[in-house]
């Protein structure tokens, strides 16, 4: 299966960016925060979604049971 050209480009750019900082995640985040602060783009912050507890699936008697 051939990889999508856009996906290949994203991965290449990601690798180049990581190499600039020797894979140091903290340095990358500092750079991203600095670039964001210098940018004139507006950020959008949303309220976190409230996750509901998942109920276990109900077991129906007689279904898929071995006798």
Written description of the protein model:
This protein has 67 residues and is mainly α. The protein has a domain at 5-35. Helix content is 45%, strand content 0%. The protein has two helices and no strands. The chain has helices at 5-20, 25-38. 0% of the residues are buried. The mean pLDDT is 87.
Category by helix and strand content: mainly alpha
Rg, alpha carbons? 23 Å
Report on the biggest sheet: none
Number of β-strand runs = 0
Mean pLDDT over all positions: 87
Beta-strand fraction estimate: under 5%
Uncertain segments of ≥5 residues (pLDDT<50)? none
Query: In percent, how helical is the residue content?
Result: 40-55%
Count of helices?
2
Principal-axes geometry comes out as extended
**Element string (H = helix, E = strand):** HH
Keywords:
single chain, 67 residues, mainly alpha
Quick description:
By secondary structure, this protein is mostly helical.
Write the layout of secondary structure elements.
Layout lengths: L4 H16 L4 H14 L29
């Amino acid at each position: 299966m051939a990889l999508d050209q856009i996906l290949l480009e994203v991965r290449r750019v990601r690798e180049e960016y990581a190499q600039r900082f020797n894979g140091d995640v903290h340095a990358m985040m500092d750079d991203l925060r600095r670039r964001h602060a210098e940018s004139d783009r507006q950020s959008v912050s949303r309220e976190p979604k409230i996750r509901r507890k998942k109920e276990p699936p109900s077991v129906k008697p007689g279904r898929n049971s071995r006798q």
